[in-house]
Design goal:
The chain has 3 helices and 22 strands. The protein is mainly β. The chain folds into 3 domains: 100 residues, Peptidase S8/S53 domain (Rossmann fold), CATH 3.40.50.200; 85 residues, Sandwich (Immunoglobulin-like); 85 residues, Immunoglobulins (Immunoglobulin-like), CATH 2.60.40. The strands form 7 sheets. Strands 9, 10, 12, 13 and 14 form a 5-stranded antiparallel beta sheet that branches. Strands 17, 18, 20, 21 and 22 form a 5-stranded antiparallel beta sheet that branches. A 3-stranded antiparallel beta sheet has the order 7-8-11, with no helix packed on it. The radius of gyration is 27 Å and the shape is flat. The model has no long low-confidence stretch (mean pLDDT 95).
């Protein structure tokens, strides 16, 4: 550990907001730690009225007083925009500060939190357009769209399935990311999607609506199965030729056991498997097939590998 680093505040992790304390004059509180790259933001932390034991109130100072201001502002942000991703909330906290001289070159933001700035947008964002998508597995549909706004706080994704009367929100995406993976799709039925952007001023109108149906038929068989000898394991790789599999089935047999046996499964869109149950001086044969509730694909090509040493 580098001298004078304090944990967890100094961990280089995106989901940490490290806070220093300022006083009523917007000066860095004289006992507070700081760091140009390790401390994100300043917040009031000197002579803050707080609860103390035995049902009393008193004035306390320190980063223990400053950090709750930041946590409270984060809660306020999510209270007004509950679909906002944590990355966007952190960015707003840091970007919407009041710049103060005492924190120059001493924090990432060089500023003290400002609640009004953090939850204010002058106007609602522009609607996204050109929504499109494709089914990639029995329970997954991938979506993408054109981001037409520079001031959104995120995107709201809505879906309606066959038999449902109304759209419902299934998730959100952070600002400036124009894709979403719906991994709760249902094979064999039609899904309808629409997307809109949002910020603290309100929601945009919706994008175009698209419909995508996951095919209700057995998946295509994988191909180009290959086997590689690893350290006390066999590594398998194959080509996924289907866009409606629920999972892949890996089968194996050997010279000493000539019957095919299922040894494991791989998830949809996965194209690899590690067999760590092999024995030395044995030859193994492998094949892979795909499955969904409408049936099995045929098997891939069969590959063999001899375990002669590691």
């Amino acid at each position: 550990m580098i001298k004078n680093q304090y944990i967890p505040a100094s961990y280089d992790l995106d989901n940490i907001i490290s806070v220093c304390a300022t006083d009523s004059n917007d000066s860095l509180w004289f006992y507070s730690h700081y760091g140009r790259n390790s401390v994100d933001i300043g917040a009031p932390g000197s002579n803050i009225i707080s609860t103390i034991p035995n049902n009393f109130y008193g004035y306390k100072s320190g980063t223990s007083m400053a950090s709750p201001h930041v946590a409270g502002l984060a809660a306020l942000i999510w209270g007004k925009c509950p679909l906002m991703k944590w990355q966007t909330a952190k960015n707003r906290l840091i970007d919407k500060v009041d710049h103060i001289i005492s924190l120059e070159n001493k924090t990432v933001s060089e500023g003290r939190i400002n609640a009004y700035k953090a939850i204010y947008d002058p106007s609602s964002p522009t609607a996204p357009s050109n929504l499109d998508g494709v089914h990639t597995a029995w329970t997954e549909i991938d979506l993408w769209w054109q981001d037409n706004s520079g001031d959104e706080a995120g995107f709201e994704i809505q879906r309606k399935k066959t038999g449902e009367n109304d759209f419902s929100t299934i998730g959100s995406q952070q600002d400036n990311l124009s894709c979403y993976f719906d991994k709760s799709a249902t094979g064999g039925i039609t899904h309808y999607y629409r997307v809109r952007s949002f910020n603290f001023a309100g929601n945009s109108s919706f994008s175009n609506t698209i419909s995508i149906t996951v095919p209700a038929n057995p998946p295509a068989a994988p191909s180009n199965l290959r086997a590689f000898l690893g350290y006390f394991e066999v590594q398998l790789m194959w080509q996924d030729n289907s866009n409606n599999e629920q999972y892949f089935i890996i089968e194996r047999k050997s010279d000493s056991d000539p019957w095919w046996q299922e040894i494991g499964t791989a998830g949809p869109n996965e194209t690899y498997y590690y067999d760590g149950t092999v024995q030395l001086y044995e030859t193994y044969y492998y094949r892979v097939s795909a499955y969904n509730p409408y049936g099995y694909s045929g098997s891939s090509n069969t590959v063999s590998i001899e375990i002669f040493g590691y």
